[in-house]
TrEMBL record:
Single GO MF annotation: ATP binding
PROSITE patterns for the chain: SAICAR_SYNTHETASE_1
Annotated source species: Coprococcus comes ATCC 27758
Protein known as: phosphoribosylaminoimidazolesuccinocarboxamide synthase
Family the UniProt entry places it in: Belongs to the SAICAR synthetase family.
Location of the SAICAR synthetase/ADE2 N-terminal domain: 43-198
């Protein structure tokens, strides 16, 4: 019995040392992985989203940043990026039989190890590499933001005449399509009419803008 007690006393510190070794090894491995993962930098950053090159595809990450009147605010909204990405997934899935889209996957297990960190889960989307149409397609159901600013000036939004007497954030009689240009950070998106959006696209895709 005494020998067994002594053996346990001998084994315990050995086990503790082994566990410490394993923990240290795992920590070092995690540190090395983090160092490697830090090498991935976005190739393009917008006001809210970041884009990473993944060889034959792109990884688009929706952050929790807030953009208002083309300015990135200091505060963030928790899980905003997740909501944006999952809403996009819903509508891409819903309409894929009508119009093909660029989405490949929102499961980070399908992406490089860098995106398998908790902070990227739910807010990352692997996409096909396609030519972007430099137009932001906005459908408004309420008069607010830059639309309200335009309405106060001349009673229109993107060339569309609206009823008189509307108050800020009022619901519109029917949804309206109000396109805008896509500006780089530091510049401002410009609300344009449908006809102007066609002309704008023609600059990038001659003869194809109307399509």
């Amino acid at each position: 019995m005494q020998d067994m007690v002594q053996m346990r006393r001998i084994r315990y510190p050995k086990c503790t040392a082994f566990e410490s070794f394993i923990k240290l090894s795992l920590q070092e491995n995690k540190t090395m992985r983090c160092k490697n993962m830090q090498e991935l930098k976005p190739i393009k950053e917008g006001k809210v989203r970041e884009i990473y090159d993944n060889g034959d595809s792109l990884i688009m990450v929706a952050t929790d940043r807030i953009s208002c009147f083309d300015v990135i605010l200091n505060n963030e909204v928790t899980k905003k990026g997740t909501v944006l990405t999952q809403m996009s997934k819903f509508w891409f899935d819903m309409t894929e039989d009508i119009l093909p889209n660029h989405m490949i996957s929102v499961d980070t297990k399908d992406m490089p190890e860098f995106f398998q960190q908790e902070k990227y889960e739910g807010k990352s989307m692997m996409c096909k590499k396609l030519n972007m149409l430099p137009i932001e397609c906005i459908v408004r159901g309420y008069i607010t933001g830059s639309g309200w600013k335009s309405y106060k000036e001349n009673g229109t939004v993107c060339g569309i005449k609206l009823p008189e007497g509307l108050q800020e954030s009022d619901k519109l009689p029917e949804p309206i399509y109000t396109p805008s240009t896509k500006a780089e950070i530091g510049d401002h998106d410009e609300n344009i009419s449908f006809e102007q959006s066609i002309d704008h696209l023609e600059k990038y895709f001659p003869g194809r803008g109307k399509n």
